[in-house]
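Q: Hi! First time doing this. I have a protein sequence and I read that you can turn it into a structure. Is that right? Here it is:
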Amino acid sequence: MVRPLSPIEQDALVAALKQTLQSDLTDAMRRRDELTTATLRMALTAITNEEVSGASARELSDEEVVQVLGREAKKRREAAEAYDAAGRPELAERERAEGRVLDAYLPAQLSDAELDALVDQAVAEVRAAGQDGPRAMGATMKLLTPRVAGRAEGSRVAAAVRTALGS
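A: Yes, that's right. Below is the predicted 3D structure, encoded as structure tokens:
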């Protein structure tokens, strides 16, 4: 029989990714790696802001930390595109470099084939439940969102679902 985890052991599991980020920040500071130091400080600040937002402060789970890091990485990609459009390639490259630092802490992204397989499976489940048409899009997204959490952007998933549904 598996014994339940003590509160201390649970806290250690919950804070594993955040502790890794803090440890890596210390290492980056020792190496005088300005890019990694600045990026990890920004990420830890975003995590802390998320922890203290709401009615009461709380510790984020690893899944929630991954969500925060995913949002920050997405901001970096969008900023790089904006800088490219504005003719500022040096700033765009800095944003991409920050994104690469964050990507190291995120789960591997799904390939197109893997995403298509998950979409096909979800569409089959939704159609087997008797839903079709516009409602099938929402039902399929509801099924897929937890399955691809952190491994594919929502816009990419939605495009794949639209293609699979033929709408």
